[in-house]
Amino acid sequence: MSDARVTIPIDRLGVCSWSLRPETGDELLASVSRLGLPKIQLALGPVIEAPDAFGNVIGRLRDAGVVIASGMLEAVGEDYSTLETIKATGGVRPDEHWPATLARARGVAALAAAESLPLVTLHAGFIPHETSDPARLVVLDRLRTLADVFGDHGVRVGLETGQETAATLLDALGELDHENVGVNFDPANMILYGMGDPVDALRLLADHVVQIHAKDAMTTETPGTWGAEVPLGTGAVDWDGFLEVVATLAPSIDVVIEREAGEDREADILVAKRRLKGS
Q1: Residues β-bridged to residue 128
Q2: Distance from CA of residue 139 to its chain's centroid?
Q3: pTM for the full model?
Q4: Percent of the chain topping pLDDT 90
Q5: Do the Cβ atoms of 150 and 178 come closer than 8 Å?
């Protein structure tokens, strides 16, 4: 039996556009060029809502030979200051932001369809575990609405992991029973939210995974507070074990590097790239 590390082929690796914190399309193109990654997950809200800065970025990325693997939809009004604020404001759960989030989703779905993007991911928000919880019914009903919106445009939806346990998400997927909904698996989020072991969670959700976010984190020492995101390979994710499970997934599933902390993000992303592709 080989002791060689499992790696990811370079043609399956990408980067999340928001990790690079670009203020214009020019800045995004320059960062992607320096990183030398062949794919990108693109935040689609700015393309619609800041056309002067990002309106032509999709065509320019493609002209540069960059494949847009997927899009990202950010719900309106999300506040990640603390675990409590994101529980109250995240995803589709808050009533006050649902109409605006739905309107944004319709615009993003239309854009994704027009640009032939196969997948858009989002945070559902905290899905309560108890089936009797009224908030669970609200969240699932709204997710069903979004799945229909994207499905009508021929675009698949990926729900990002972390804000509930893998078992709760699996139950919710079963209750949704919507062929257009899959999982965008983020191992670091499982740690940041204190929602279980990433490797075990990936095994449980494997049949539903449509994309992987490559990100690392350390567990919190104070229950009820955030863990800490750290450069890939320096946190609590067992990357050897995690990538062994990734290797069993469909070869069409992309692994997209995400870095949402740190001041030298390009350097951290390059470290992640080297670890994932094995050089």
Answers
A1: none
A2: 18
A3: 0.96
A4: 90
A5: no
